[in-house]
């Protein structure tokens, strides 16, 4: 829609020419076109800002969704890692308790068996000392028997020297009987003592052997149990080392996830800063958009005001042109009548032109006689002057008639 504005207009009295009274300065059209281009540019900028705002809102929504997703994933992973760490800690505590109990049991068993071995070793030492004492007693008895043999031999020698054969025999028999009795007594004593001692020692030795065998069996069983417990302990230690490795891996993964979480938090903070900047830009764009709307509204109000002014001026001009068109139409009718009259006169003159040519030829032929030709020449010159005057008048009238419709067109 094109709006026409007038920067200057000149209105004069009703007696003056309307074409010279009102002037429309069409240079204001450039101003209107510039205003329209500014408006279109403002609308285009507004659309661009709205589109950019929508894109920024979508980007903000996507970033918020991504931040929420990353936060949920990190929370789930952190929860899982804490649960795994708690399970590993419980397993580690249980394994430590089992290892401690096994070590205490093994220590108690070793102490018990060590005490029993020490007791058996002490008993063995006692039995060995008793056996040594018995050997010493046996050696002492043998020494006494040898001394008795020596005494017997000395007695025999004394008997041979001092007494008779009979005394010697009696003495010998007596000594022999004493010796036999002593030997029997010694044998009896030795046999009883040795038998008792042997029985005691045999019993003690059998008991010691039984204890040693039982202790060896227990030691073998304990060794097997200790080996099994050592194997179990090695397995537990391997499990513990694996658990510790898993714990370290989990801690490393936790640290990695913590670093990722820190990075995501930093990214979230940067995104929030970007979001804050975008919100500020969005606010500024909204303010610019509101300013543009206000400017467009002001321009539309100005244009509507100018349009109303133009309509009022156009109505005034139309009313004045209608007022001035009535006398012009009457005058144009008169001029048209005169024009028709002069056209008819011109047609008649054209029709009379061949006759005038004939008259001119006759005049040329009769030019030699001035007396005869004077009245004819005066008449001809009069006709020529009249014809020229009529042509001039008809030309003026036709020009006036042509100018009047043009002026009326300009007024309209």
Automatic annotation (TrEMBL):
Region (Disordered): 371-412
A Pfam family this chain is assigned to: CCDC144C
Top-level taxonomic group: Eukaryota
InterPro entries recorded: Ankyrin_repeat_domain, CC144C-like_CC_dom
Domain CCDC144C-like coiled-coil: start-end pairs: 35-380
Biased composition (Polar residues): 371-385
UniProt keyword annotations, A-Z: Coiled coil
Coiled coil regions in record: 60-151, 191-309
Record protein name field: Coiled-coil domain-containing protein 144A-like
């Amino acid at each position: 829609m094109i709006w026409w504005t007038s920067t200057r207009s000149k209105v004069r009295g009703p007696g003056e020419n309307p074409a010279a009274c009102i002037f429309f300065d069409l240079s204001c059209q450039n101003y209107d076109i510039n205003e329209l281009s500014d408006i279109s540019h403002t609308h285009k900028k507004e659309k661009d800002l709205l589109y950019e705002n929508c894109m920024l809102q979508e980007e903000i929504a996507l970033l918020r969704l991504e931040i929420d997703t990353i936060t949920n994933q990190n929370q789930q992973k952190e929860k899982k890692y804490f649960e795994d760490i708690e399970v590993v800690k419980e397993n580690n505590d249980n394994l430590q308790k089992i290892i401690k109990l096994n070590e205490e049991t093994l220590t108690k068993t070793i102490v018990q068996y060590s005490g029993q071995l020490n007791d058996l070793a002490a008993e063995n030492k006692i039995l060995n000392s008793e056996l040594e004492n018995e050997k010493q007693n046996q050696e002492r008895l043998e020494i006494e028997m040898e001394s008795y043999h020596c005494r017997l031999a000395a007695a025999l020698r004394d008997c041979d020297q001092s007494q008779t054969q009979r005394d010697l025999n009696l003495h010998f028999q007596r000594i022999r009987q004493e010796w036999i009795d002593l030997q029997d007594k010694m044998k009896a004593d030795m046999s009883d003592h040795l038998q008792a001692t042997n029985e005691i020692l045999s019993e003690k030795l059998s008991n010691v052997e039984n204890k040693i065998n039982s202790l060896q069996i227990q030691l073998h069983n304990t060794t097997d149990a200790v080996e099994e417990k050592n194997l179990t302990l090695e397995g537990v230690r391997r499990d513990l080392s694996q658990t510790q490795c898993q714990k370290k891996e989990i801690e490393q993964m936790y640290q990695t996830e913590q670093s990722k979480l820190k990075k995501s938090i930093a990214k979230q903070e940067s995104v929030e800063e970007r979001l804050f900047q975008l919100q500020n830009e969005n606010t500024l764009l909204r303010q610019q958009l509101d300013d543009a709307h206000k400017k467009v509204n002001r321009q539309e109000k100005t244009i509507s005001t100018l349009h109303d002014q133009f309509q009022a001026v156009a109505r005034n001009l139309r009313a004045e042109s209608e007022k001035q068109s009535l006398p012009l139409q009457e005058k144009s009718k008169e001029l048209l009548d005169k024009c028709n009259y002069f056209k008819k006169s011109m047609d008649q003159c054209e029709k009379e032109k061949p006759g005038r040519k004939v008259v001119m030829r006759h005049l040329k032929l009769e030019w030699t006689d001035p007396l005869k030709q004077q009245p004819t020449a005066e008449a001809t010159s009069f006709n020529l002057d009249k014809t020229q005057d009529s042509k001039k008048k008809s030309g003026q009238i036709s020009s006036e008639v042509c100018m009047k419709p043009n002026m009326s067109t300009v007024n309209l």
